């Protein structure tokens, strides 16, 4: 376990160093600072994305539950072939593991509980998980959620709890915990954005329905007004 945590820490450290190196190189080549920062950050996100896919690959050896004929027929009705079904199931199995970690660690301290309650993170991650299960053909739309945001939140919340449980803490430790909690808050906000983006079609449909309902009410009110106005007393 400690070796895995050390490896994870080194990966994040190397990613940060790579981002900084790319940024310095671009600035040295007379790139404008803002585009250089955006490009180097994008490179960092890509590295984390690749890490997420590799991490998924390392976890796919876990035995999956037996696939029922009904579920297989459902996947096929959504246009998934056998390899697609296998990949989807492995992806969601890994996501389920990450969500369980988030539920464990985001409720382990008062600070993280407050962040979770403010953002409703656990409920949203579970809800989005269920929505993806219903629409497996939309897996490509949630790459960032599954391979970057979810594992990053699970890993950082775990590290936060581990450090917060230290018996003695220095000022630097408290500062790090404070910065980490701010980052975790932003991660939770990103999870909420992932959910809203995935459900954007439903929201747009509701907006249309509301507008139609309002117009219908306006017409009814106009009709009722006219009928009363023209009625002889």
> Oligomeric status of the shown chains?
single chain
Shape: globular
Head-to-tail CA distance between termini: 86 Å
Average residue-wise pLDDT: 80
Topology as a string of helices (H) and strands (E): HHHHHHHHH
Helix count equals: 9
Query: Sheet bearing the most strands, described?
Result: none
Estimate the helix proportion, in percent. Answer: over 70%
Which structural class best describes the helix and strand composition? mainly alpha
Task: Explain this structure.
The protein has 233 residues and is mainly α. It contains 9 helices and no strands. Helix 5 packs parallel to helix 8 and helix 6 packs parallel to helix 8. It is globular, with a radius of gyration of 24 Å.
Describe this protein with a few key phrases.
233 residues, mainly alpha
Quick overview:
The chain is mainly alpha-helical and 233 residues long. 82% of the residues lie in helices and 0% in strands.
């Amino acid at each position: 376990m400690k070796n895995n945590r050390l490896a994870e820490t080194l990966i994040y450290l190397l990613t940060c160093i790579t981002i900084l190196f790319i940024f310095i190189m671009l600035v040295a080549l007379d790139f404008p600072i803002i585009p250089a920062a955006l490009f180097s950050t994008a490179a960092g996100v890509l590295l984390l994305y690749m890490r997420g896919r590799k991490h998924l690959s390392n976890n796919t050896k876990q035995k999956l539950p037996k696939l029922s004929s009904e579920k297989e027929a459902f996947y096929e009705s959504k246009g998934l072939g056998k390899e697609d079904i296998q990949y989807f199931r492995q992806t969601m199995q890994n996501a389920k593991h990450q969500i369980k970690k988030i539920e464990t660690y985001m409720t382990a301290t008062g600070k993280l509980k407050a962040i979770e309650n403010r953002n409703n993170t656990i409920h949203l991650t579970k809800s989005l998980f269920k929505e993806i299960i219903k629409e497996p053909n939309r897996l490509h739309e949630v790459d960032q959620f599954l391979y970057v945001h979810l594992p990053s939140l699970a890993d950082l919340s775990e590290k936060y709890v581990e450090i917060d449980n230290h018996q003695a803490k220095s000022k630097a430790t408290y500062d790090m915990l404070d910065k980490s909690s701010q980052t975790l808050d932003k991660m939770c906000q990103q999870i909420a954005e992932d959910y809203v983006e995935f459900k954007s079609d439903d929201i747009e449909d509701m907006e249309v329905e509301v507008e139609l309902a309002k117009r219908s009410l306006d017409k009814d009110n106009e009709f009722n007004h006219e009928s009363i106005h023209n009625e002889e007393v």
